[in-house]
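Worked example 3 (structure in, sequence out).
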């Protein structure tokens, strides 16, 4: 019997099947190293960040559910509309008799957003505020400490969390320097960290790639490397260990992103772009 009081979510298998079918109809995607994804237990999955396609490929081609860190705005699409409704130049502010309509719209938008946000979380996403500063430096520090504790709890509960250590997508196609957060979280949660690298996806989700035809049947390779277990982490204090582990991850991810080129694909990649 269906519990009408409990939110009803669309099973994760549905979007996974649809998105994977869509991606396969456009691109030629090759995934290697799936055996390196542990069948159970928490882990940090790191990867270079080239395009919006990166998390989609991770999420639908890896058999386990992957938890992603998403922008706060992604989980609250109603806020820009609410801002317009409550703007001082809005008709709803100038004509008070329209307030019942405004209240109804606000409640409707918030309800839809709550359902949408809950669905994203059910599929494996969690919201974070990027570049959060708060009212003062202490508040910002407190926010990031709580965020790290929250992610560590997720890892300890047995989930795989995907982190792109560059912090943002590359604008040049070249992998940028890694930040130490992923390594720090793996050390704190005492879970394996899995390097992975993606090649061929850069700019392949942009309209230009579709209009020019470059996107269609472009080869995208996603290589998953050997996990680094906690007993192989550097034996230093947390800060230094995170730095050393980050340096090792950079080397491994870079190798995984260039491995396909050593198999004779670099010329084709340059032609596509």
């Amino acid at each position: 019997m269906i519990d009408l009081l409990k939110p009803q979510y669309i099973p994760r298998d549905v979007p996974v099947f649809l998105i994977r079918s869509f991606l396969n109809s456009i691109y030629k995607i090759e995934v290697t190293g799936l055996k390196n994804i542990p069948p159970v237990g928490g882990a940090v999955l790191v990867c270079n960040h080239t395009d919006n396609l990166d998390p989609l490929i991770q999420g639908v081609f890896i058999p386990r559910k992957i938890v992603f860190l998403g922008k706060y705005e992604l989980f609250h699409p109603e806020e820009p509309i609410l801002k317009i409704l409550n703007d001082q130049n809005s008709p709803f502010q100038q004509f008070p008799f329209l307030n019942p309509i405004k209240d109804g719209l606000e409640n409707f938008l918030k309800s839809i957003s709550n359902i949408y946000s809950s669905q994203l979380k059910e599929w494996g996403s969690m919201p974070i505020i990027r570049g959060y500063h708060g009212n003062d430096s202490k508040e910002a520090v407190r926010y990031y400490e709580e965020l790290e504790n929250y992610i560590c709890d997720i890892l300890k509960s047995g989930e795989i969390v995907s982190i792109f250590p560059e912090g943002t997508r590359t604008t040049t196609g070249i992998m940028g320097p890694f930040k130490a957060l992923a390594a720090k979280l793996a050390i704190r949660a005492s879970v394996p960290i899995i390097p992975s690298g993606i090649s061929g996806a850069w700019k392949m989700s942009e309209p230009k790639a579709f209009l020019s035809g470059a996107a269609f049947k472009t080869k995208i390779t996603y290589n998953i490397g050997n996990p680094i277990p906690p007993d192989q982490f550097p034996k230093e204090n947390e800060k230094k260990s995170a730095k050393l582990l980050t340096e090792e991850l950079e080397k491994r991810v870079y190798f995984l992103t260039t491995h396909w080129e050593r198999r004779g694909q670099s010329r084709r990649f340059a032609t596509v772009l």
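Notes: Strands lie at 28-32, 43-47, 66-71, 125-128, 160-163, 193-199, 219-224. The longest helix spans residues 99-123.
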